[in-house]
Design a protein that fits this description.
Blueprint: E1 17-19, E2 27-29, E3 34-36, H1 40-48
Antiparallel strand pairs: 1-2, 2-3
Length: about 60
């Protein structure tokens, strides 16, 4: 279950976030299945008034 965060989740730290390489829609969210000009978490908050519930932190690798 997604954790409740008091502030907007950082899309760059989310496992669902990706770069589309489309100039008109450079950012995407695989969990919510959309692309946008702004970070997905910003779009979610603007349209629903709540912070992104699909945020899932990326797994940390064992690299030093």
């Amino acid at each position: 279950m997604p954790s409740q965060t008091p502030e907007r989740p950082n899309c760059l730290a989310c496992r669902h976030f990706y770069i589309t390489y489309e100039p008109t829609h450079p950012y995407g969210c695989r969990a919510l299945n959309f692309k946008s000009l702004q970070y997905p978490a910003v779009v979610v908050f603007a349209s629903s008034g709540i912070h992104c519930q699909a945020f899932s932190a990326k797994e940390k690798t064992g690299q030093s």
